[in-house]
């Protein structure tokens, strides 16, 4: 999976977190591991321009998604080729807007960026929330992916801490060499 990040926002963003959330969401949605994604962080003015140009709505927004490839050409046909890697598209995030949104929702900026990243991935995969039924489906899936991602992160963090404790103990009792 290839994810390209570009920060044009002037705001310090948690790029490792965004990358991790995007990779997890893409894998969770069973997208081909060779898929490509671009994530761009922009300022308020740029986001407002994009919002007006593509959605005909004034002012900035938090996230916009621009799909590139049709992911399932010929899907469902018995003679259809196996799907290969695809360019999913671009996710455009506005960190400044996200920070204000996070503050208003009383959660961290990092959490907001993870939510918006997963939200953007789902839009690239064809999910929408224009109708109540679509909204329930998309936001339910988004919540499930985020919950699984947080569980996965906790497990990885725990495993890394345990591995460090094991390494420290092995060095302490002489079964491993000091790295100094």
Question: What topology does this entry show?
Answer:
Elements: E1 2-7, H1 15-28, E2 36-41, H2 44-55, E3 63-67, E4 87-93, H3 95-105, H4 109-124, H5 132-172
Parallel strand pairs: 1-2, 2-4
Antiparallel strand pairs: 3-4
Distance between the termini: 35 Å
Q: What number is the mean pLDDT?
A: 91
Major sheet, described briefly?
4 strands, mixed
What is the 3D shape?
A: globular
- Going by helix content, strand content and strand pairing, the class is alpha/beta
Count of discrete alpha- or pi-helical segments spanning 4 or more residues: 5
- Which strand-content bin applies to the residues? 5-15%
**How would you spell out the order of helices and strands?**
EHEHEEHHH
Q: What percent of residues adopt helix (DSSP H or I)?
A: 40-55%
Q: Strand order across the biggest sheet?
A: 1-2-4-3
The low-pLDDT segments are: 71-76
Tally the beta strands. Answer: 4
Radius of gyration: 20 Å
Write a brief caption for the model.
The protein has 180 residues and is of the alpha/beta class. The chain has helices at residues 15-28, 44-55, 95-105, 109-124, 132-172, and strands at residues 2-7, 36-41, 63-67, 87-93. Strands 1-2-4-3 form a 4-stranded mixed beta sheet, with helices on both faces.
Q: Can you tag this structure with a few keywords?
A:
180 residues; alpha/beta; four-stranded mixed β-sheet; 5 helices; 52% helix; globular
């Amino acid at each position: 999976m290839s994810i390209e990040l570009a920060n044009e926002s002037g705001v310090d963003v948690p790029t490792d977190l965004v990358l991790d959330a995007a990779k997890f969401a893409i894998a969770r949605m069973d997208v081909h591991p060779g898929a490509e994604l671009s994530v761009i962080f922009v300022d308020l003015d740029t986001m407002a321009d994009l919002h007006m140009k593509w959605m005909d709505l004034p002012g900035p927004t938090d996230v916009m998604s621009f799909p590139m490839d049709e992911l399932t050409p010929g899907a469902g046909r018995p003679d259809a080729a196996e799907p290969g890697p695809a360019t999913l598209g671009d996710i455009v995030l506005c960190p400044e807007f996200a920070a204000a949104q996070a503050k208003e929702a009383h959660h961290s900026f990092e959490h907001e960026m993870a939510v918006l990243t997963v939200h953007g991935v789902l839009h690239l995969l064809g999910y929408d929330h224009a109708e109540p039924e679509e909204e329930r489906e998309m936001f339910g899936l988004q919540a499930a992916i985020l919950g699984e991602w947080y569980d996965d992160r906790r497990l990885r963090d725990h495993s890394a801490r345990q591995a460090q404790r094991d390494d420290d103990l092995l060095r302490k009792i002489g079964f491993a060499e000091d790295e100094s």
